[in-house]
Amino acid sequence: MRKIAVVFPGVGYTKDRPLLYYAGKVAVNCGFELKHISFTGLEWSKEKLKDHAFLLQTLDKCLHITEEALDSLGDMSEDEVVFISKSIGTVVATAYARKKSLKVKQICFSPLELISGFIMEENGILFCGDDDPYADCAAIETIASDKKLEIHKIAGGNHSLETGDICTDLDNMKVIMERVADAIIDVGIYRIPVRCMDDTTKNLSEYRNKVVLIVNTATGCGFTPQYEALERMYRNYRGKGFAILDFPCNQFDKQAPGSASEIHNFCTARYNISFEQFAKTDVNGPDESKLFTYLKKKQGFHGFGDNPDAEFLRRKLSKQTPGYEDTADIKWNFTKFLINRYGEVVARFEPSEEMEIVEQAILKELGD
Fold first, then answer.
1. pTM of model > 0.85
2. What is the rounded CA–CA span in Å between residue 69 and residue 61?
3. What is the fold, at CATH topology level, of the domain defined by 190-366?
4. Which of 137, 221, 249, 267 is catalytic?
5. Per residue in 32-56, pLDDT tens?
6. CB neighbour list of residue 70: distance below 8 Å, 6 or more residues apart
7. What does DSSP assign to residue 124?
8. pLDDT given for residue 76 in this prediction
9. Among the listed residues 121, 67, 125, 88, the one whose alpha carbon sits nearest the alpha carbon of residue 13
């Protein structure tokens, strides 16, 4: 699938200025093709940014330029698209997306208040400086609240989100680009709370930039010996940035009946596992973990394959759960989800999948 990042400049703030330049680099690193919109030749100035009539007139011209540049790309709804914009470019980007009914991800630096009439709910991330002379940061915060948008306020930031202190600006730029990367690649996985063995809660942000295999497990299942292969892969590849996250689950024939500590003791004594285990977790139903809700949404069920284990699961579930094949639910213990370094859920493996196939997919994501 083609992935496109479109950069919309601001008044005097071109694609080569820090915010747009580095955001573009982040997009390229995430596998996006860059497309730059140019508004050169238009007569405008910073002083006119507060002139509502001028903005509307300029918006019409910019929209025409944008349509000429983007309409030729075809049906963008079939692509994964992100709009990266600055200042008046935020208005153009949001207005174009609204006009074309595009549900694209939007990253808006120093947005102008006119975006309120165009930007769609839950469809963007905003960065504003609280010392911006051309945009009211408090008004932008209100827009973000009304539209359910993520917002980051830069203390002392001007219209370029700069404070005048180089050290502060460098620190801010690092944080801003981390948030941009999150928005571009939809790293919901890193923000979802999960329950640890000691009943504390954390998110998975420590696993950023790693290849991760998430598994729901059980200690009394016919697939439990897969722990041996999992531990071998973990020891072989952890030095290359590979991690395994183990979520014991007692929902399938009650094959994980012990407490979290009992399960952990069994796994370390029998299989000498060293990857992280979490608290017992529901993966289906009303109490299912938000993590598994997210994983199932990203990678649904596509069948068990063709081997004796697959046939066993088909027969068992046909009796136990008629119509099982029509849902994305986890079907059995040792279902696995593979996450790439960008936080994308790139594959789902049913328990019947050969571990060699799983390992091949891991190596591909590790770059081996």
1. no
2. 13
3. Glutaredoxin (3.40.30)
4. 221
5. 899 999 987 776 666 776 677 877 8
6. 6, 35, 37, 76, 96
7. E
8. 67
9. 88
